[in-house]
Amino acid sequence: MEIKGRIKSFITFLKGEISGGIIAAVVAMPQALAFGVATGFGAMAGMWGAILLSITAGLTGASIPLISGPTGPCTIALASILSSHGFGIQQAVLILFMAAVIQILIASTKLSDIVKYVPYPVISGFMNGVGTILIIMQLMPITGHSLQSTVIDTVTALPSAVFDINISALMLGILTLIICFAIPQRINRYFPAQLAALITGTAVSVIWDFDVERISRISLVFPSLTLPCISISAIKEYLPFALIFAIVASSESLLTGLVADSLTKTNSNSRRLLASQGAGNLICSLTGSLGGAAAAMRTAAAIKNGAVSRWAAVISGLVLLLILLKFGGLASEIPLAVLAGILIKIGYDIIDTKFLKVIKYAPRDDLYVLLIVFFLTVFYNLIFAVASGIILASLLYAKRCADTTNLGVKNIVDNDIMKYEADVEKASHHEIRVVHINGQFFFGSATRIISHFDELLGTKYLILNYESEHTLDISAVFALEDIIVRLKSQKITVMLVIKSKEVENQLKNLKISGQIGENMIFFDEKEAVSVAKKLSAGASKTKSRAHFPFWHIHH
User: Over pLDDT 70: what percentage of the chain?
Assistant: First the structure.
């Protein structure tokens, strides 16, 4: 029976890896083609980048199923560098090579952990900026005109392009967007809308013989290894640009790793993750392929279709290789307007709609940070935008702490309360536990606090006592939402004790109250304990609970 169980488990595992890898490959194909064209590397360079990066990162990376390849932020970063300085493909390959080496060096240090502490408004402003750039830049190709090098050039050229629209290109672009947005999620999960749009748009253009610009130049030859020309002067000249690409690719990969960890409920090795991405980009640079990062959309698609390990990334790359060899010749007929429509949809998906829906309730400081990062990303420089956002967020937080901190001596340990809580936990066999958060629950503390909630084995009712009277910043709000989801997945009932009506109104406006349950929010800890006791008494106890000591978090 044990052998049968192992065989059944292995078959389930293999089915999930193959299913997840295939779906991820199908999602990646139209994106890789579009990103290759957008950077100037070419459609096939985009495809080979998706193949080589996914396989390399899969073979050498962390245990989670990270699907890698060309991505929106990496494409925008590279395209901006090339267009702003007039660099060609040879310079781009050298920049990519140096960026890969930088990624591997970063992986050997603790710098890979820094991304966990980047404030949410900075990430949101950056992603909104990248999404907006993708959308604006494709307005020219979708109207039948040549791609411009920058957002400002596109905005400047757009008025004249409007009076000289290629109707056929516009029709194909609109058709692509309709298909991308109209296909329901339940169908999109098994047959991605972007692939459906690519096939339909290309077929329509061929059948009706539309006069539109197409990919045209296609070569199915395996890329050959070529060493870039490296010299001291070249390193000095291109190092800043390599650093920009390395930071963008590393940040996106690490953030995707956090998404994958959340979906698979694992803790991956961030250093190994980053080293594998550097190794993949190194191979891409040596073959003239388009580099990139771990892609959140493809990774999520793989995991939701059963993938649980890095072998899904390897399978995804092999499936892409099979598609390229079997159908690559047909890619020359793909209209650029169709790829433009796909990129516009990708840009829309990158935009952080989650934050935008609650932006009117967000603290003013978070809004300032988001807007500054957004405008600097769109109109100036990606790395300068992120760095400025982090510095501004830190300064605003320091000001907020200075405004709310009072000097004086205070005994923060109440022995009576401590004894009362210890007695409650002991009497309930640790099914009821009280957790205090003393001090500001902000973006810096949210990540550390979340990590503690994976240890609550045996708990059935968790009373979370937020002792500050100040409202939460938006990072803490989403961290609290993540805590609630994690605890609910562990069948733990969450109760929240707060100190002010202002915090209660904020939780209602941001829909957090609905997730906890308005009857589970209290202003008095003893009232929450009383309700937890009643709920615990009504539930049958089937086994003894593991001991977990009462603990406090101090900031």
Answer: 85
In one-letter notation, the amino acid at residue 332 is S
CATH class entry, domain 415-554: alpha beta
Which residues 6+ apart lie within 8 Å of 240 measured at CB? none
CATH 3.30.750.24-classified regions of the chain:
415-554
Taking alpha carbons only, the member of 258, 342, 341, 272 closest to residue 300 is 258
Of 288, 191, 215, which Cα lies nearest the Cα of 33? 215
Q: Which helix (H) or strand (E) holds 167?
A: helix 167-182
Q: Report yes or no: 371 and 125 within 8 Å, Cβ to Cβ.
A: yes
Q: Residue 517 — left, alpha, or beta (φ > 0 → left; ψ -120 to 50 → alpha)?
A: left
Q: Is 229 left (phi over 0), alpha (psi -120 to 50) or beta?
A: beta
What is the predicted pLDDT for the residue at 392? 85
Place of tokens 């891409």: 284
Question: Do 344 and 136 touch, CB atoms closer than 8 A?
Answer: no
Helices 270-286/89-107 angle, 10° precision: 160
CA distance 474 to 365: 10
388 near 372, Cβ under 8 Å?
Answer: yes
Helix axes of 364-379 and 120-137: crossing angle, nearest 10 degrees: 40
Residue owning tokens 């009280």: 434
Q: What is the mean pLDDT of residues 390-410?
A: 60
Structure tokens at 312: 């899904």
Kind plus residue range of the DSSP H or E element containing 552: strand 552-554
Q: Which two tokens stand for residue 199?
A: 């096939």
Cβ atoms within 10 Å of 304's Cβ, excluding its own:
13
Instruction: Give the N- to C-terminal CA distance of the chain in Å, as an integer.
Output: 52
Residues with Cβ within 8 Å of residue 286, at least 6 apart in sequence: 97, 225, 226, 227, 228
Task: Judge whether residue 489 has pLDDT over 70.
Answer: yes
SS3 412: coil
**How far, in Å, CA of 112 to CA of 276, rounded?**
13
What is residue 546's DSSP assignment? P
pTM: predicted TM-score of the whole model, two decimal places: 0.71
- Alpha-helix runs per DSSP H in 61-145: 72-85, 89-107, 120-137
Residues facing residue 554 across a β-bridge: 438
